[in-house]
Structures are given as C-alpha cells and as structure tokens.
Specification:
The chain has 255 residues and is of the alpha/beta class. It contains seven helices and twelve strands. A five-stranded mixed sheet has the order 3-8-10-11-12, with helices on both faces. Strands 5-4-9 form a three-stranded mixed sheet, with no helix packed on it. A two-stranded parallel ribbon has the order 1-2. Strand 4 and strand 5 (98-99) form a beta hairpin. Helix 1 (7-18) packs across helix 2 (32-48) and helix 2 (32-48) packs across helix 6 (219-234). The chain is globular, with a radius of gyration of 18 Å. The protein starts with 6 loop residues before the first helix and ends in a 5-residue tail after the last helix.
Amino acid sequence: MSAETLPRELLIGTIARLLEGVRHVAVGATSPIPAAGAMLRRALDERNGVPAARLSILGSVRHNFFTNGSAELFDAAGQGRIDAFFLSGGQIDGQANVNLVGLGDYPRSEVRWPGSFGSAYLYFVVPRVILFREEHTPRVFVKNVDFISAPGVSSPEVYRPGGPVALLTGKGLFSFDRQRPGFTLDSLHPGHDLMEVQEATGFDFAHPANPPVTPALDASTLGLLRRQVLNELEETYPAYVADWRRDLAGLGEAH
C-alpha cells in the first residue's frame, strides 16, 4: 500500500482527530469529506477499544439514526444530544461569521446561495462546530461577510453552549478562540506556506513564527481509511468514492 497521503485523505484524517472523544456527530447533506472523517473516527474508536462515536449522516440510510430527517436533527441538537457538527459557507470571516445567503447588500443580493436553513440554530447549540471549506481564497475568507447567516460569537448575556472550535481548509487548520475572538493557524498542509495562506485570507489570524505541518496519516490509519471507510462512504457518495478510487489507482492502489 502506498504511504502517500492524498490531499482529501489528509483532510479526512484531520477531521477524525478533531472529533476525538465525541459521543454523537451529525453531518449534513452533500458533505463527503466530513462524512468520511466521522466514519474514520468511529473506525479508529472501534479499533482502539473505546466507546465508538455515533454517526448521523443526512442522506445515508445505513449511517443515520434519524427517521425524520433534519427535524429530528434539530430536536436532538436542542436537547444536547449532538456533540459535533460541520458548517460551511460562501463567505467566512475572522469572527467565524458564516454567510450562506449571497453576495451584496441583502435583500438585493447580486448572487444568491441556497440559504441559511438551520445554521444559526445549530451554531448556538452544538458545542463542537467545525467550519470546513476546501477552497481557501480571498473570495471565501473575507474581512466581513456580506450577510450573517450564523454568527461566530455572541454577547456574554446570550445563552450559547455551542459555537466554532476549528476551521479546516485546503491549506491549513485553524483553531478558534471565542474569548479573543479570532482564529489561530495551528498547522499548514504539505506544500503550503504561511505567506501563501496570509495572501489567501481576507482577515488577520494569529500564528506561530514557524507553523508546523499537518501530520500525514500513518500506514495503519491509511489502510483503515482506504478499505473500511471508503466502502462505507460509497453508499451515500458513490461518485465521490469513484473519483477517490481513481486517485488511488494513480498511486498504484487497487480497490
């Protein structure tokens, strides 16, 4: 088996690390990388003999405890029964505000996106929200979002057990400090440097003088990911898995 970690596998492995210790993780629709990360977390828990994370992946039949779709997701989150969730956005700013509505002055937005749905509610009640956006460019990571679908922080008098803990992109991993508030670059993915990330980010962030490199997956974890997780993910995301298999074939892997 090739020991080279593909970029998508690095993201999936990083998500699995961020989910260590969770009891129940929910994944929204059209989220193959977060779904694979959650599956890898469960597989690692099972391998290590610790209580395995419970998964609720919208769009999946096999990996979903919900029988009433997003309505049950919102109920479970409000009752404190979901530990982790993922949010993305067309824009994300340095205060971890997320924009899912569109570009320009609302309601006359020049570009419209699908909408906020339940993002603000889940952002307030799920304690470990991981922001995920593979594209890392100035058009995504802006100084101030055009519209706040879900606020990253709230004033002290607001009851808010939930909120952002991390931001994972195609270039690096950031942690979020709700007290400061702001992001800190924790690690750079292989092939990227600090200046590149700064130029691609529209907001300031804290960082060490020499940020570490995001660790690649070890051979054992890669094997688990490329066999068990790849097969489990295919039920919900067959096209994504087919593309992943083609990447592996390029490394000489047969699956």
